[in-house]
Structure prediction request, 204 residues.
Amino acid sequence: MLRSPHLSRTRPAAVALVVAASVLLLSGCTGEASDPDKTTAPPKASETPTASAEPTQTAEPLVPFAIDCDALLTPDQVYAFNPNFGTAPDFAPSSEHVVAVVAEEGTACGWLNQTSGELIEVGVATPPPAALLAHKSDAAMDSTPVPTYGTPPDVEGYFTQTAGSGEVQVFSGPYWIVIQSAALFEPGDAGQLVADVLGNLPAA
Prediction:
């Protein structure tokens, strides 16, 4: 049986149409392409605002105090206390509180007993108000009040004896005065030295 030439030419075309339709159908199953405008960006890590640093307390500026040793205690005053005492050329503060006076930019002086080798250390500073108050509080806790050094609140005096050495702390106006020596056995031993130093300091 002879085939119609028209049928032999139309079959390949029909097959091609079917294949094309199948490809279209299959492509439809993959879903729509994502819309770039609808794409959700990955969430960013939350940015925690940096906490502002807490204000720190600013240290009070030191107030330097300088005075010549011969003005702090005159040679005559030293001689009146004890004729054996004279200048100490190699003096370096060793008393804890006299060292603290120097650290607060005060003045420290020393007089040496030429016979016994005992040393008198005298230091004077003008600490900032808060530091001055702290020194007063420490002296009141660790020492014995001595009313003969002066009348509070104009003058507050304290004395303590430790390891064979006497120490005086006196507060007058802006001044912190420290006198330390093994020659001071009791509060009265330093009475004249305290009076001389207070009398020689510039008026505040």
